[in-house]
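[Meeting: bench + compute handoff]

Bench side (C.D.) handed over the final construct sequence. Compute side (W.E.) agreed to return the predicted structure before the next meeting so the bench team could plan truncations. Sequence as handed over:
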Amino acid sequence: MLLLAEHYDGYVDTATYQAACADVSSALIYRPTDGRWGGGAVENSTIGLGDLKLLKNVPGSNMIRIAFHIKCNRTLNSTGNRPVIKLQNATPDRYWRLIGDATTFCARLVPSKFDDTSATNLFAVNATHRGGVAINDGFWHHVEIALSAHTSTGSFKMWIDGVEQTEYTITSGDTSDAVSGDVTAFDRIYVCGSNSNTSGVNGLWIDDIIVWDDTAGGLTGHLPAEHRLRKLEPTADGSTNQWTPLAGFAYANVDDTAIDGDTSYISETVAGQIDYFTRASLGWTPNAIQAVIVESIGKMDTGTHTWRNKLKSSAAVANGTALTATTTYVMTKTYVDYDPNTSAVWSQANLEAAEFGVEFVS
């Protein structure tokens, strides 16, 4: 099941990104044109842990999987206080992380566990053997990790550019905190921490991050190939048009390739009103569609109001969780792993025939 997906496209600048995505920190820089596929990406800043995501519980009984693209032209941080990726249980502060490997001049990623009581790195698999791919060459690399955190039957794997880094593979063993045994669940993830051991200079970018687990009902297992998140804007109004556009057709007010604030929008004040939109063609032929994400960004003028995303495939509708609007634009995302009409993986034809939109809840 897909838990998180971030394409980093269309946020304009760092301030707009931070305002739209309320669950992120300020310790990063948004780069609108530096991404893996020519769109946006985030770059580490000179301080702090970087972006904060996944503010939901992922129990240790689930396999948690993360995939992302990374580019780096500096040494990676090997001390762990500013990791590339950090899976954390906030209370107590114990976590898994991906950091630089000091034995290879911080050019390669290495998994690490950390315990707040001993302040000692507790994970050392094949400590004398550090193979794998140097990722600080200034080129984009694809990274995927799979972690099942358990005191005796846990597992870990990491792939870089599709190749399993077998020196770090754990088939069945203790992948929890060796001192207290409680790194078996996570409720947040930090990405794109500052990368230099000494100066904290920029030079590490992350793009197209996805997080999923192996529970039934959606994306599961190892990715068959390098993934890509494609942001698509509507090209026409759908079957229901109950919101009021600022001008012209409704879809033309929400087809922003980049967030434009109050320049164009649709609005509503009546509970239950819905606006649907369509996208007649994806514009390319994907090898496989792993999931669909419906995104909307909104704010309120007066009072307290909520809205939710909707996706309609034939007569079946998938509804997102209602989000309370604030006085600044905030984004909500709805992950739809399966076609709600067929309960199967998405086909290109069914996705191109689907409608997506928003509902004014209250």
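W.E. noted at the follow-up: The radius of gyration is 21 Å. C.D. will use this when planning the next construct.
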